[in-house]
Amino acid sequence: MTPDAQILTALRSTPAGVSGAELAQRLGISRAAVWARIEELRRTGYDIEASPHLGYRLRAAPDALHADDLLARLGAVKVVGRDIRVFQETTSTNDVMEKLARDGVKEGVAVFAESQTKGRGRLGRKWLSAAGKGLWFSVLLRPKIRPQAATQLTVAAATALARAIHRQTAVQPEIKWPNDILIRGKKVVGILTELSAELDTVKYIILGIGVDVNQTAADFPPDVRRLATSLRLETGQPLDRAELAAAILRELDQDYARICGGQFEALADEWEERCSTIGANVAIHVGSRIVQGRAESLDADGALLLRTQHGHLERIIGGDVTVEK
Ligand code: BTN
User: Fold this and answer.
1) Which domain holds residue 317?
2) 284 pairs with which residues across the strands?
3) pLDDT more than 70, % of the chain
4) Do both 251 and 318 map to the same domain?
């Protein structure tokens, strides 16, 4: 952990205040160096009180994403989020991640951007990424799985996101196959999974995740407003984006460990419980084809099993789904 991350961790774990001497000892630096770091944190928007009796006390953090702060809030993780990078603006965090992946960066790195100029959605769609209002980020994974099983990672991401949102807001979101998260029928999260593979092994997977957090209705263009919502609109109050980001990475780290440990089945069960598509009669657009039937379950690779009108089981890995009434 960087010195700033260590300072923020100490300040958060002792809200009553930590003395400069104690911080200096924990970090193995001088008290003057601690003071310099505190000044730097103040310059980036942290409201840190310094009192001769109580030492340093964190009064408030800015509504901005900082890598050190995210690391401090996240705490110990196995893989996901052990390296966090934050950009003020990028084209797409998936683009940044693709370069890192090709450069051989270790799995688990998470790249956040406060805004994206070319945010991408599934099926070549655009993704709106209002500055400072949501969480726009990508996570790099290098699982030792066959390319056919890559869908497992999308299942993990959706399950982790639904759990994190429920924990942070008490709202129970639903998963819409393959990878949307909805609240009261409106989309609040999108996941774009991009894969680089050889014939029988995955080289890397980039999970691109967009969460609409603090937008008001006016932040969505009228055509999007009918279909999308934000956590703020659903809960009636603004959310701490950094806290939510840390919660999501923590849940994703757990679910990734479940996949790597061969426990996909348990994860799929949780996904199915949270998924409103399972058990419904649906029409799925797969390219130019429309497949109709009843969504039954996920298979061992994370693909959807659809019982068609003729009684056959079709295995579907992606598409646009409409629930039929
Ligand atoms: C979808 O529902 O169509 C998927 C949307 C995924 C959006 C996220 S935002 C962070 C990452 N970077 C991108 O360009 N896209 C994903």
Assistant:
1) 281-323
2) 291, 321
3) 100
4) no
